[in-house]
Fold this sequence. Notes:
Blueprint: E1 2-6, H1 16-30, E2 34-40, E3 51-54, E4 56-59, E5 62-68, H2 75-82, E6 86-89, H3 94-106, E7 110-113, H4 129-145, E8 149-152, H5 155-164, E9 170-172, H6 179-182, H7 189-194, E10 201-206, H8 215-228, E11 232-237, H9 243-252, E12 259-263, H10 267-275, E13 279-282, H11 291-298, E14 303-306, H12 311-314, E15 321-324, H13 328-340, H14 342-356, H15 361-383
Parallel strand pairs: 1-2, 1-6, 2-3, 6-7, 7-8, 8-9, 10-11, 10-13, 11-12, 13-14, 14-15
Antiparallel strand pairs: 4-5
Helix pairs in contact: 1-15, 8-13, 11-14
Amino acid sequence: MKIGVFTDSYLPYTSGVVRSIEVFTRELTDMGHDIYIFAPSYPRCQKENRVFRFASLPAPTNPDYSLAIPFSIKLRPVMRKLDLDIIHVHSPFLLGRLGAKYARRMGIPLVFTFHTLYDQYVHYVPLGQEITKGITRRVCRDFCNGCDLVIAPTEIVAEHLVKLGVKARIESIPTGIEIDKLSSGEKNWLREKYSIRSDKKILLFVGRLGVEKNVNFLLEAFTAIHRRRQESCLVLVGSGPEEEKLKKKVRRLGLDGEVIFTGKLPWQEVVHCYSSSDIFVFTSVTETQGLVIVEAKAAGRPVVAVRAYGVSEMVEDGSDGFLTNLELDEFIEKVVLLLSDDCLREKMSLQAKENARKISSSNCALKLMACYQSLLVSKQDVSG
């Protein structure tokens, strides 16, 4: 099968969307399918086989992110030559809309993965945020209803789409994780890289440092956690528009040396971070899945996370971690409990590793392929 993937974000940019595309591309390619990616270009972007890049501009609110210009005179002959079976888009904007246009033109199935709660990102719009939120919801609903299939990473997001007014077929397929790779991290990597004492317990966060990830809440919580358990430290892996503000807040809270900013790291080093930490902490309230949570679990790390949207399906509360309300005291108590109880932490660590196997990348790719094949059969029945 030949699959065209249209996405508004791709390597070298890092995000959950990019990671999802990487994982599924690798699995489907291993199964013998041909994946062609249509994505924005970035400065110093290397030419890659089966990746078509569009001219792009830096995003005004995030210079690391490129906005593709959804036009190229080279695209039409490329699409004719490829003769794709399916187009799978990963955004309802820009290149997602271009992919939808070509799916209609070529008479082939259109699949859309709803990765992002777009209406929760209106803080990047300087004015009229409530109006923008309403418009964004309508745009997402209408785009979904123009697709043959919408993939939701979790059941709770599938329910959200139905409430939004989506009538198209919806299937819940999470982004799977590469179990073996996530079990191969170096156990002392963080301590050696950042000179963290052996008696320190490491709390780890992995994600983009943007408003929507709610890292301010995490820093407030860690201030109290560190007062009660001074042998703890916090490592923040990632970069983003809020990074400098967060560093200033750390200095203001008097936590210099106790909070470590690693910046953006290659994925293999992120794997080392998972393996060399003690507890994974996550406070975002906008996740459709929270892929980093399952990655941390695969590395055997118990999780304390705020219960919201897709995150609530990624943590088995009381088994491989704790889910809390968006309340500082509750979040603090659960982290302190895990820091204080070595037996509980070890028990949850083993369970986290076991539970993560339920979302292996190979199983999720098989589910996606079954959906693709059902769409092709449906198209053949209609045309026949």
